[in-house]
């Protein structure tokens, strides 16, 4: 029987302490041995480490409920950060004083713990650090916890953490509450930043106009630029973790079967809006101005009706990053003239990228006909597209149509079909497809 020698045990302990000092996951598992590290935790931790290094100063993390985002971002990260920067200041805010104070108590207890002192032997709590919501390190740093909307004047923040600024659906749906949080963020929270200070917003998305939504809208209008980590519970196309479509974010805790039960339960209470918002991080308006949510029909993902006639269409864009989106859409039409969305490709991509994606879709679905907008392709990318069609030997009958003067006019035909329940979307892609009819 092999035994661990005292020398080997000591070497293992020293290695664990070094990892705890150097990276957030190592610190988390050292101070919380029962923590089960999943792939998305490593992604979250890597972004928080970039905040600590000063490489990211505006970070948003969107994650489903009960996926340990707060354990990493609002408990372990502040303690780890103060271990590395014991003279700095942190402010942590959440939707209410009680939750914020709970975070403060947990961080304080981590810093006061034996594991922390072994990792950072020269960092300690100040002797008078009794309060859970307001305490200092012995090296001049500080931690302040407060509810969103509360006064936090008198303290600065090298890191401002905002964890779930919205308490529940009722608050998120309240224009008055959303306005209050927005005004507090601009007039109170933002003004607490130290020079070069960072903001980390960790939340589950409740509403398209929640704090994250307003900040992203402000970004479009020249405001702060944000690094966004959005982690849907069920992967769609172009998943940030590289998951296969339909794969769960944390299979060990929340496999797809469990997520489907959750989705079904939420759908009974509030329709699909709740699951798409809270679990897929894709909040949507209750009703659009042109299309109504109740018009949308869903078919089982991966099981479209047989014997449909397949067609395709594209809306091309010439520019890549930062420009318009190029969209390729593949649909099937059944014997009753119902339309089934079979495939969708949508990216801000250069022409060489979207041409290959177009050919991939043609090769896979073999559509009877492909619709394009007249003029743009013929004069621009048309020759290159024709060349790649011949080189790959992938053919379809492409037809150019003149565009109507405005989008509402162009959308009237499909609007009529939608209103009659004759357009179907794949069930497994609710979060990724719903924008098309919003």
User: Could you give the order of the helices and strands?
Assistant: HHHEHEHHEEEHHEHEHHEEEEHEHHEHEH
Which stretches are poorly predicted, pLDDT < 50 over at least 5 residues?
A: 430-438
**Distance, first to last CA:** 65 Å
The tally of structural domains comes to 2
Summarize the structure.
The protein has 438 residues and is of the alpha/beta class.
Core attributes:
2 domains, alpha/beta, 438 residues, seven-stranded mixed β-sheet, Nucleotidyltransferase, domain 5, 40% helix, Rossmann fold, single chain, elongated
Write structural notes for this entry.
The chain has helices at 6-22, 24-31, 39-52, 69-84, 97-112, 114-119, 169-172, 175-189, 211-220, 256-270, 272-278, 351-365, 376-379, 382-392, 407-419, 430-433; strands at 58-62, 89-94, 134-136, 142-147, 157-163, 193-203, 227-230, 297-299, 309-315, 326-333, 339-347, 369-373, 398-401, 423-426. With 438 residues, it is of the alpha/beta class. It has two domains: 6-231, Rossmann fold (3-Layer(aba) Sandwich); 287-437, Nucleotidyltransferase, domain 5 (2-Layer Sandwich), CATH 3.30.420. A hairpin with a 5-residue loop joins strand 10 (326-333) and strand 11 (339-347). The longest helix is centred in the N-terminal third of the chain and has 17 residues, at 6-22. Mean pLDDT is 88; it is low at 430-438.
């Amino acid at each position: 029987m092999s035994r661990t020698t005292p020398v080997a045990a000591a070497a293992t302990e020293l290695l664990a302490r070094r990892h705890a000092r150097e990276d957030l996951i190592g610190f988390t598992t050292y101070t919380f041995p029962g923590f089960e590290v999943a792939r998305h935790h490593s992604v979250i931790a890597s972004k928080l480490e970039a905040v600590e290094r000063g490489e990211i100063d505006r970070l948003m993390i969107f994650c489903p409920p009960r996926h340990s985002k707060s354990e990493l971002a609002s408990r372990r990260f502040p303690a780890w950060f103060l271990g590395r920067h014991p003279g700095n200041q942190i402010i942590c805010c959440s939707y209410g004083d009680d939750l914020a104070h709970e975070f403060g108590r947990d961080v304080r207890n981590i810093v006061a713990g034996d594991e922390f002192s072994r990792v950072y032997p020269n960092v300690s709590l100040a002797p008078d650090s009794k309060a859970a919501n307001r305490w200092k390190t012995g090296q001049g740093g500080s931690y302040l916890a407060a509810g969103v909307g509360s006064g936090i004047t008198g303290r600065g923040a090298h890191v401002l953490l905002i964890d779930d600024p919205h308490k529940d659906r009722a608050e998120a749906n309240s224009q008055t509450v959303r306005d209050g949080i927005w005004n507090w963020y601009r007039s109170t929270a933002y003004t607490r930043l130290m020079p070069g200070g960072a903001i980390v917003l960790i939340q589950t998305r409740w509403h398209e106009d929640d704090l994250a939504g307003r900040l992203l809208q402000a970004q479009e209008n020249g405001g702060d630029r944000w690094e966004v980590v959005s982690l849907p519970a069920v992967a769609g196309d172009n998943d940030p973790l590289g998951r296969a479509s339909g794969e769960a974010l944390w299979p060990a805790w929340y496999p797809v079967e469990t997520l489907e039960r959750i989705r079904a339960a939420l759908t009974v209470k509030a329709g699909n809006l709740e699951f798409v918002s809270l679990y897929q991080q894709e909040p949507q308006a209750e009703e659009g101005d042109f299309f109504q949510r109740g018009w949308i029909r869903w078919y089982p993902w991966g099981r479209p009706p047989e014997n449909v006639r397949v067609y395709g269409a594209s809306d091309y864009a010439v520019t890549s990053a930062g420009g318009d989106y190029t969209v390729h859409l593949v649909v099937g039409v059944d014997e009753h003239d119902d339309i089934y969305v079979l495939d969708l490709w949508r990216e801000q991509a250069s022409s060489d990228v979207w041409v290959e994606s177009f050919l991939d879709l043609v090769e896979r679905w073999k559509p009877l006909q492909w619709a394009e907008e007249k003029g743009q392709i013929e004069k621009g990318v048309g020759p290159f597209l024709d060349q790649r069609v011949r080189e790959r030997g992938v053919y379809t009958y492409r037809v150019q149509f003149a565009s109507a003067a405005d989008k509402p006019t162009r959308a009237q035909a499909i609007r009529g079909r939608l209103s009659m329940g004759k357009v179907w979307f794949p069930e497994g892609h609710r979060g990724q497809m719903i924008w098309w009819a919003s």
